[in-house]
Amino acid sequence: ALSLPPWKVRPEGGEGVAVPAPRRVNKQGVLCTDYIVGCGKVPKLGSLVKLTYEGMFPDGEVFDKNLKRSKPLSFRKGAGQVVRGMDIGIESMRIGGSRELVIPSHLGYVSF
To answer: Quick one: which of 97, 101, 92 has its CA closest to 32?
Structure first.
């Protein structure tokens, strides 16, 4: 069983529905676990995506996060503006959702 931090399992303002039994799914090498399935649309390729995140190494050390910043991370879906694993990991994700991504090092780069 996965041990879940509380922010991953509480939908806010009717934006999504908690997943009763989260499970990991492999999407092109990125391990994805949905905790909240959003009720909004799935953003299309090239759409502006805004999200909050916490990035950590396998040992749990946090290397970056924007959870407490005033602005979410904004980027165009599929445009190579974030690491490749992020673009892969948000595929099929709905607005309002919460998903954990485990991105392998070979997908942790930005291509220009």
So the answer is: 101
d(C-alpha 1, C-alpha 22), whole Å? 9
Structure tokens belonging to residue 103: 């991105």
Contact criterion met (CB below 8 Å) for 75 and 81: yes
Q: Is 16 exposed, middle or buried (0-12, 13-18, 19+ CB in 10 A)?
A: buried
Integer CA distances (angstroms), 22 to 51, 99, 102, 110, in order: 20, 10, 14, 29
The model's pLDDT over 37-49, given as tens digits with 9 standing for 90+, comes to 999 999 999 999 9
pLDDT bin (cut points 50, 70, 90) of residue 1 is very low
